[in-house]
Amino acid sequence: MHPLDDTIVAIASPPGGAARGIVRMSGPQVRTCIEAVFRMEDNAEPPHCTTPTVVAGSIRLDGIASELPCDLYLWPNRKSYTGGPVAEIHTLGSRPLLEALLRTLCTVGARLAEPGEFTLRAFLAGKVDLTQAEAVLGVINAADPHQLDVALAQLAGGLARPLHELRESLISLLAHLEAGFDFAEEDLPFITTEQLDEQLADAERAVAKLVEQTASRSETSAEIRVVIVGLPNAGKSSLFNTLARDADALVSEHPGTTRDYLTAELDFDGVKCQLVDTAGMVTKNTSGSIEEAARAASVQQSRLADVQIVCLDSTDSPGDRPADQFGVNGGVVRIVVLTKIDLPNGCDVPGAILTSGVTGEGLDELRGAIRRTVLATVKSGAEVVVGTAARCRESLRMADASLNRARQIVASDGGEELVAAEIRVALDELGKVVGAVYTDDVLDRIFSRFCIGK
Ligand SMILES: Nc1nc2c(ncn2[C@@H]2O[C@H](COP(=O)(O)OP(=O)(O)OP(=O)(O)O)[C@@H](O)[C@H]2O)c(=O)[nH]1
Ligand SMILES: [Mg+2]
Question: What is the C-alpha to C-alpha distance for residues 354 and 337, in angstroms, rounded to an integer?
């Protein structure tokens, strides 16, 4: 665990040349450090302010002859990001200059910050809870506008607020139960069985809602899987290679070329997804053969798909293009593509995107359709950032199980002490989610994923 009583400093602006660069510091020595490098325009000392202040001035750095103009932002007390004194020096965005400033500040009492240490301090000072700290990470790493919306909503308390309310109501319920234990011989219940059951049921519903909010598609990634399916030789691998640009799936005129599945990461202007090429789905009975294994793998991939690109060969006769046979997946969204339209072909398929790998026709339309579909699919996914979702799932499940057991105990008149014990377990688990209950290794795991300066 990092100490809290020293002063940390880091470059807070991203690497690379920019008009403005920011060095941020936090800790008790902020003022001393600032006084060592900063002068106001009239050569006066930095102001002794009691509220957040911004002043113009200049900095003098070791080994650099001229003074550099800068703005100093000062948060002198608890009303800051970290909950302690914070200063930011906004100056020219030159990396060597910012590094010189960092070195100078380290010689006058600051030390280099670890990744995420500013946000860790904010958490330890009670400024943000763990879900909000992770939302900061979500905002930094957001890959598209929807992920940004989700992270900002979480940062604003979208998860913290309902969790806080739920914990408050369980704490007050526990207090009522415990008050009843102290006055057990008076035979006057502080809370009736009906009220107890009702409040536990309310809590259960609140946990179910939180579980729904954190339901994300996978433990490690909320990435959308776009799977290309179709009959052998339909042009799937050709499409895969074109969409993934530098992919090199085997393409040949022999049906059954692709035997396993291949994946590639796609990024359409910040909208990311995973593209999967599968083996052609043979319809005849191929039991025990390699075709059967390939077919099984394709069926499995198409079931895992969030979006299917159903690839139909425009030179096949209409009866050979069964668009509905490629795996059953209730929630899947389909984009139907008719390939090889540069060749003389039969009839059209209503709603299909017409493409040719030879002339390039229809490929931009297809990219646009994938992008829109992925964006729409992401929207129905998790409502919290992926890191939080993965971390919270187990705790919410345990809290739910405890509340459920508590209700069963109430129903079977099993004793209020046991109900109270289950509520305590639920409270502990919910406490882990917000960080009211935490261990150092949990904090290390969360904050080490941050960048330095945040
Ligand atoms: N003229 C033309 N030929 C194409 C087009 N797309 C694919 N082909 C040809 O069709 C044949 C099959 O293409 P693939 O991309 O290997 O088809 P596939 O669906 O991956 O085939 P399997 O992996 O065997 O299921 C190859 O000879 C390609 O060159 C196209 O748009 N126009
Ligand atoms: Mg193929």
Answer: 6
> Mutate which of 227, 251, 343 to test ligand 1's pocket (most atoms within 8 Å of Cβ)?
251
CATH code, 34: 3.30.1360.120
Q: Please tell me the pTM assigned to this model.
A: 0.61
Distance CA 55, CA 127 (A): 25
Give yes or no for residue 253 CB within 6 A of ligand 1.
Answer: yes
Residues 124 and 145 in one domain: no
CA 399, CA 403: separation in Å to the nearest integer? 6
Task: Please check whether residues 58 and 18 belong to one and the same domain.
Answer: yes
Ligand 1 proximity of 343 Cβ (cutoff 6 Å): yes
In sequence order, which residues have a C-beta less than 8 Å from that of residue 413 and are 6 or more positions away?
193
Residue 419 and residue 397 in one domain: yes
Best of 233, 243, 254 for a ligand 1 pocket test (most atoms within 8 Å of beta carbon): 233
Strand, coil or helix: 229: strand
What angle, 0 to 180 degrees and rounded to 10, lies between the N-to-C axes of helices 236-244 and 363-379? 80
370 shares a domain with 237: yes
Q: Please state the rounded mean pLDDT for residues 317-332.
A: 59
Binned at pLDDT 50, 70 and 90, residue 56 comes out as: very high
| Closest ligand 1 atom, residue 239 Cα | 15
Q: Whose CA is nearest to atom 30 of ligand 1?
A: 340
How many alpha carbons fall within 13 Å on the CB side of residue 200?
30
Q: Name the residue with the closest Cα to ligand 1, atom 13.
A: 235
Task: Determine whether the shortest distance from the Cβ of 236 to ligand 1 is under 6 A.
Answer: yes
Assess whether the C-beta atom of 247 lies below 6 angstroms from ligand 1: no
In a domain? residue 162: yes
For the segment 325-335, the average pLDDT, to the nearest whole number, is 65
- In the structure, what pLDDT confidence band is assigned to residue 364 with cuts at 50, 70 and 90? very high
Question: Does the pLDDT value for residue 162 go beyond 80?
Answer: yes
11 pLDDT exceeds 50? yes
Mark whether 177 and 114 lie in a shared domain.
no
Using the 3D structure, point to which of 97, 129, 161 is the last residue of a domain.
Answer: 129
Structural domain count, the chain: 3
Query: For position 187, what pLDDT does the model report?
Result: 60
